């Protein structure tokens, strides 16, 4: 069973009714396109004019839903109209069918109709003039061009503009989707960066507070409790300072304030001293002069050492914790080792986010990272390439 014919568009119904009523009005007042005694009027009388008029009005109902069918039937109706006294409204409605076939029809129809009507216009100009040898014969081609080629060319121009507008709209939607995807990625990346910074800045101080408060609660010794409270106060003040620094960076959206300086390797000494205050037997070995390093490498190295000391404070057995930094060719090598085994002292719980954050920092710079048991020690080792970090610094500067 053939699929049902789709319902005509409301505007097409209005066009068909307007054309039909206009044609009937012209017929009623006797406005025909040709006199009854013209030689090519084979079907004389005024009533035959109504048949092609009604057929052409019916074709207008198909101008959107079946544009090719409407055009083909319209050609037959126009042919029938030429052997009657003719109606101007029928001719006008046919030009609309040509326009609609190009505008709403398939791409093949939109390409072929202008070519066909153009060739017919040329043929209608040359052939009658060659046969009749009269200048008036050129008007045949002009009429064909006005009735066929002009609406076809107009429909093609409108269709091209419509397709271009649709392509522009699709590109705009794709651009908006890509922009939203980039924004989401940027937000996710920024949230991950903020999480790493917050964890690395505060976890060390909060871990020391948790450990020393547990010791103060478990031991009934005033001197020990006083010493623990002193360490707790010192770490609380340092943690608050770090939090204020991060909040200041997040709130400084207008650029009126100077940005807080990021930690560098010059602060490793103070970092290790703080670890000793918290109870770690920590040593720092930087070997020879490390020289000038890219800012991303210094920040990543500082945070890796900071988080490694925090993990040693929470999980290491009694013994020496060694921090070693070495520059080799175009990379910076970091190694933090701590005793690995059973321990009896109070410890703070860990979430595992520290190792994840260190691995992410190293991955962003294109380096390598390992962490795990190495005999009687727990070893954290990272290699940060300097050339990759320099390119990251340049790209960040360009983005800024």
Q: What does the model show?
A:
This protein has 400 residues and is α+β, with helices and mostly antiparallel strands. The chain has 11 helices and 5 strands. It has helices at residues 10-29, 50-60, 67-82, 88-104, 107-132, 138-218, 222-251, 268-277, 295-315, 353-364, 386-399, and strands at 281-285, 320-328, 331-339, 368-374, 377-385. A 5-stranded mixed β-sheet has the order 1-2-3-5-4. Strand 4 and strand 5 (377-385) form a beta hairpin. Helix 6 runs parallel beside helix 9 and helix 8 (268-277) runs parallel beside helix 9. It is rod-shaped and about 130 Å long. The two termini are 66 Å apart. 28% of the residues are buried. The model is unreliable at 393-400 (pLDDT under 50).
Task: Supply the key terms.
single chain; 400 residues; alpha+beta; 11 helices; disordered C terminus
Radius of gyration: 43 Å
Number of helices: 11
The poorly predicted ranges are 393-400
End-to-end Cα distance: 66 Å
The averaged pLDDT comes out at 81
Shape, per Cα inertia axes: rod-shaped
Helix content bin? 55-70%
N to C succession of SSEs = HHHHHHHHEHEEHEEH
Blueprint (SSEs and pairs):
Layout: H1 10-29, H2 50-60, H3 67-82, H4 88-104, H5 107-132, H6 138-218, H7 222-251, H8 268-277, E1 281-285, H9 295-315, E2 320-328, E3 331-339, H10 353-364, E4 368-374, E5 377-385, H11 386-399
Parallel strand pairs: 1-2
Antiparallel strand pairs: 2-3, 3-5, 4-5
């Amino acid at each position: 069973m053939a699929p049902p014919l789709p319902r005509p568009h409301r505007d097409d119904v209005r066009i068909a009714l307007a054309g039909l009523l206009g044609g009937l009005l012209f017929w009623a007042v006797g406005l025909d396109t040709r006199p009854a005694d013209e030689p090519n009027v084979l079907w004389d009388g005024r009533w035959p004019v109504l048949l092609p008029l009604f057929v052409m009005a019916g074709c207008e109902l198909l101008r959107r839903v079946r544009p090719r069918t409407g055009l083909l039937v319209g050609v037959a109706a126009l042919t029938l109209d030429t052997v009657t006294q003719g109606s101007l409204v029928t001719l006008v409605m046919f030009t609309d069918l040509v326009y609609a076939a190009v505008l709403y029809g398939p791409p093949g129809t939109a390409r072929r109709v202008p070519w066909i009507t153009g060739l017919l216009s040329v043929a209608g100009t040359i052939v009658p003039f060659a046969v009749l040898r009269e200048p008036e014969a050129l008007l045949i081609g002009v009429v064909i061009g006005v009735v066929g080629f002009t609406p076809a060319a107009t429909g093609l121009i409108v269709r091209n503009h419509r397709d271009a507008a649709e392509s522009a709209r699709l590109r705009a939607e794709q651009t908006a989707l890509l922009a939203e995807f980039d924004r989401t990625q940027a937000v996710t990346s920024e949230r991950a960066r903020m999480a790493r910074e917050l964890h690395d800045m505060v976890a060390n101080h909060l871990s020391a507070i948790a450990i020393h408060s547990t010791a103060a609660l478990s031991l009934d010794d005033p001197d020990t409790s006083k010493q623990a409270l002193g360490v707790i106060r010192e770490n609380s003040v340092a943690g608050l300072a770090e939090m204020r620094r991060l909040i200041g960076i997040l709130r400084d959206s207008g650029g009126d304030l100077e940005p807080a300086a990021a930690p560098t390797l010059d602060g490793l000494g103070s970092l290790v001293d703080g670890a000793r205050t918290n109870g770690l037997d920590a040593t720092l070995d930087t070997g020879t002069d490390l020289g000038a390093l890219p800012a991303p490498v210094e920040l990543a190295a500082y945070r890796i050492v900071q988080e490694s000391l925090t993990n040693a404070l929470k999980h290491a057995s009694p013994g020496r914790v060694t921090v070693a930094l070495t520059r080799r060719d175009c990379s910076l090598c970091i190694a933090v080792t701590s005793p690995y085994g059973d321990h009896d002292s109070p410890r703070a719980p860990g979430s595992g986010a520290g190792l994840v954050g260190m691995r992410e920092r190293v991955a962003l710079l294109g380096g390598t990272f390992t962490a795990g048991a190495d005999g009687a020690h727990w070893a954290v080792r990272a290699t940060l390439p300097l050339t990759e970090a320099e390119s990251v610094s340049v790209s960040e500067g360009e983005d800024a």
